[in-house]
Structure formats: C-alpha cells, structure tokens
C-alpha cells in the first residue's frame, strides 16, 4: 500500500508506506491551479449541507483568506484560511503560510508577511474588506522549531481594524474522543473558492504512529498538541477554524490531512484531517498581539532581513 498526497500543484504522488505525516490541505497552492479535495464523507464541501446559514455568516463573519504574493510574479501566489480572534485587527492562521522550501537538509525559508493581505469576501464572492498584514508572530520564528506541526500557528496583526459584528471565543482545549467539531474554511479546486464553508466531523486523538515525513520535511514532537478529524477539507483550508458547537468556542487551527487513498470511506487509521489544539500559550500569544505587544523573538522576519529578536532576545512562549 502507498500513501498518496496532493502536491502544491494538485498532482497526486505516491510514497512507500511508512510512518509519516503528510500535510495535504496544509500545502499552499499557486493561484489558478485546481486540486482534488480531501473528501472523507463522500460528498463535496459545496453541497447544501455545508453552506452557511444566515446565523453562521454572522458568527463566522471574520473568517477570510490570507493571500500572499510571490516576488517573482505579479499576482497572488499562495492562499490559506485565516480568522479574526481577540480584536478586529488580529488574525489566526497556520504558520506554514509564511515558510516555504523545507527539505530534509534545511529548514523552511521565512517569507515577509508584509507581502500578504487578509481579505473578507461577501456572499457573492466579491471582496468585502481587505487589510495588509503589519506583522506576524509564530513559534516557527525559532528556526529549531520550524516544520514541527506541533507548533504550526501564526498570529497576524493587520494594518487596520476590519468591520465585523462578532468575534468567536477561543478556548484552550484538551478535547474528548469522538466529539463533534466544525471546520470553517475555504476550499480550492472544489467550486466557489471565495466562499468559506462549514464541514463537520468527529474529533479523535492524533494517531501516535504518524510522526514524520522526511520527504516533506515535517515532523511532530508532541502529538498530544494535535487532533484528527473526519471533517472534509481541501487545499486552501489550512489555517481554518475548528469550532466546537457544544462549547461555543474555537478550539483549534486546521493544518492538513493524511490519506492513503484518493477518496476512501472515512477510516481514522487510513485517512484523516488534523488540527492544532489551542493551548494557554497560544491564547497568550494572541493576547500579546491584541495588545500590540508581541514578543520580539516570535516575530516572523524574512530570512536575510534584520530581526528585532537579535537586538532584544526574550524567552519564547512555545509550551
């Protein structure tokens, strides 16, 4: 048997079966390309069951897209999901949005978050609001932590507040096995790409055997920080919000998927999405950005540019 995963361009590749972690929805896509979705339920995320109600659109009005430009092109090159949390100028997404080019020989290269924007779309898939990213913080600013999915989260500070009526509550989450969770995220390659959808699945503990993928240069040092789910996702969903309806709170960030078939029936041991649980340290990092007092050592600075952390070292909050 071989594990299959989607490349950045959406093509399928096969790897000899071994214990590995394969970020599928975590991959960033070049604009204009299409990719098959990781559909675990047998239906498309754009089916009516996943469409937001009027109430959902109000609760999740702050779910948007992080769109980044490649300096080698004139248009948008990389996209992911992000969502407002804490204040109307603070956004949560996955850290790997700003890190590229990882290999077994080197850590991912940090990109300049200022080349990215946070965009909210309306019901007609037209831009409703847009703000540039002033700065971003992440545990991945520490090069020794990069590529570790156990810390794959970034908090963004926008250059202006956006106008929304509701901001979700986030809670540090240990979770219960088989709890129901919603994934609120965008989906590329499955239809309406400028619209966020809600998909639902069961939460489970992250399988301890899935620890490393040498080819993708990803690893997990603490599987307890992660969880797996059967909620549908696709490329572009990375950074999405996991929401617990029972707790009325956001409980994690979507990172990727592991799958050994293209469209299997859901089996938690063969095919699943996974997310990073909110922890007190992540909540504290959000609070620092809300107060506009980020830890300098956690600032994401493009490789080759001067870092504030070099002039003012501080303790990194990564626990």
What do these coordinates show?
The chain is 7% helix and 32% strand. The strands form five sheets. A six-stranded antiparallel beta barrel has the order 3-4-5-10-9-8. The chain has three helices and 18 strands. The protein folds into two domains: 149 residues, Beta Barrel (Thrombin, subunit H); 128 residues, Thrombin, subunit H, CATH 2.40.10.10. The chain is globular and about 45 Å long. 46% of the residues are buried. The chain is mainly beta and 319 residues long.
- N-to-C series of helices and strands: EEHEEEEEEEEEEEEEEEEHH
Total count of domains: 2
CATH fold type of the largest domain? Thrombin, subunit H
CATH architecture descriptor name of the largest domain: Beta Barrel
Number of helices: 3
Unreliable spans: 1-36, 307-319
Major beta sheet, strand line-up: 3-4-5-10-9-8
What level of helicity do the residues show? under 10%
Q: If you compute it from the alpha carbons, what radius of gyration comes out, rounded to the nearest whole angstrom?
A: 18 Å
Tags for this model:
319 residues, mainly beta, Thrombin, subunit H, six-stranded antiparallel beta barrel, six-stranded antiparallel β-barrel, 32% strand, globular, disordered N terminus, disordered C terminus
